[in-house]
Specification:
This protein is an alpha+beta fold and 416 residues long. It folds into two domains: 243 residues, BirA Bifunctional Protein, domain 2 (2-Layer Sandwich); 91 residues, Rossmann fold, CATH 3.40.50.800. The protein has 15 helices and 16 strands. Strand 3 and strand 4 form a beta hairpin. Helix 1 runs antiparallel to helix 5 and helix 5 runs parallel beside helix 9. Bound molecules: zinc ion (2 copies). The site of one zinc ion (ZN) has 8 residues, from helix 6 and helix 9.
């Protein structure tokens, strides 16, 4: 037997209603803030991710599905959403029509060790806003993320964490100071962090290792070494969040791996699935568009993993679809006539499910019941003779006889 590939899964019909609610709610909320949908290919040139995500990042070095196509080009399945959005922004000359506010949703691919709730094909949605430089955009984006989560029924346990990563001007001097501090404490760091001490000392601040965390808590923090402009931006953000009545926690240990991330970084975490887990992560990347060869454009964005959100979704919001009208047909002649009638009704806009297996009336009624059909139409020998149908209201058991030629009008009233 051939099965799904390790780390992938089917989303079966019992689950897809949750996904639909998630997607539709997100579309509504994003649209309410002026975001439009962008759909990019699921594979791109490998070089795109090497540049946007970082050639030495774990994602690019170890986790991408990279392959040579038949023409010999190196392509990769997208491991995240932002790189392609930036590419599309540059490629379509959209710097001429700023602001550009887009959202995306869809499958992403990473070759990671599969764990509970983590897949090699997983889904993300996110927003990217190009052109807005000030903290207003940052605060509004956070308000949007929190609004979406509350709409999805994730509420009480949400925490908004923010930090500033500084900019090109102030991060250099800070980095030197941090490096000196970490060198003094190198003995307490994990093997991995010792290796990246030269290359990327900032990432040591968010290492999960016991020893590294103890060192990180004592380290100098970026937020205390911001230049004037960065300090103003951060101050502006916290003032706006307070004005919006959005509680936040400053987490000085929240960092990002790459140089083009600057100023605002944020995460929303929840305890709704047990341990404190991030459900959304985002921040500014004012340097990325230029890094990718475009005209320097300030930008901010966030992404959310959809698997976790689908699990968190308030069950009360998710209704499994149930048929309004279920047609039970007994006998060969009735089956043929039932098919003809059902097509006439559908032509008139009336949805109707025809029992696909036939057999006894009893077994067909059982299937109608299992699908929680509101009305059942019965077409058997007697109804064939009388050119009619028996309509049964499943809620109260009431039955009425309909003639074929007048059924459309009566059924449209039911399906409304
Ligand atoms: Zn700065
Ligand atoms: Zn470490």
């Amino acid at each position: 037997m051939i099965t799904t590939v390790r780390g992938t899964r089917d989303i079966l019909p019992a689950e897809t209603p949750s996904w639909r609610v998630l997607e539709e709610t997100a579309r509504e909320v994003f649209a309410a803030y002026g975001y439009q949908e962008l759909r990019t290919p699921v594979f791109e040139q490998t070089a795109l991710f090497a540049r946007a995500v970082g050639a030495t990042s774990d994602i690019v070095e170890k986790e991408m599905y990279t392959f040579a196509d038949r023409g010999g080009d190196s392509l990769s399945l997208r491991p995240e959403g932002t790189a392609a959005v930036v590419r599309a922004f540059i490629e379509n000359n959209l710097h001429r029509s700023l602001p550009w506010a887009v959202y995306y949703m869809g499958p992403m691919f990473r070759y990671e060790r599969p764990q509970k709730g983590r897949y090699r094909q997983f889904h993300q949605m996110g927003c990217e806003l190009f052109g807005a430089e000030g903290p207003l955009a940052d605060a509004e984006m956070m308000a949007m993320v929190l609004r979406l989560l509350r709409r999805l029924g994730v509420d009480a346990s949400l925490t908004l964490e923010i930090n500033s990563l500084g900019c090109m001007a102030c991060r250099g001097p800070y980095r030197t100071q941090l490096f000196a501090f970490l060198q003094e404490h190198v003995a307490a760091l994990c093997e991995h962090c010792r290796q990246r001490l030269q290359r990327n000392p900032l990432r040591i601040l968010d290492c999960k290792g016991e020893g590294c965390r103890a060192v990180a808590r004592q380290a100098p923090f970026m937020k205390d070494h911001l230049c004037g402009a960065c300090a103003d931006h951060f101050q502006g953000l916290t003032t706006l969040l307070t004005a919006l009545n959005l509680p936040f926690v400053v987490n000085p240990l929240m960092v990002r791996g790459l140089d083009y991330y600057n100023r605002t970084a944020f995460e929303v975490t929840t305890t709704a699935l047990g341990a404190q887990n991030a459900v959304a992560a985002g921040g500014r990347y004012d340097g990325l568009v230029a890094e990718m060869g475009g005209q320097a454009t300030p930008a901010i964005g966030f992404a959310m993993g959809m698997e976790r959100l689908a699990l968190l979704l308030d069950a009360a919001q998710v209704k499994l679809p149930r048929p309004d009208i279920y047609l039970v047909v007994v006998g060969d002649a009735a089956s043929r006539q039932g098919l003809v009638l059902a097509e006439q009704w559908r032509e008139a806009g009336i949805p109707v499910v025809v029992d696909p297996l036939g057999g006894s009336m009893k077994s067909q009624m059982r299937r109608a019941d299992r699908l929680q059909a509101r009305f059942v139409l019965i077409l058997g020998d007697r109804e064939m003779t009388e050119q009619g149908l028996l309509l049964k209201n499943m809620a109260n058991g009431e039955q009425v006889f309909l003639k074929w030629e007048t059924a459309v009008a009566q059924l449209s009233a039911l399906a409304a």
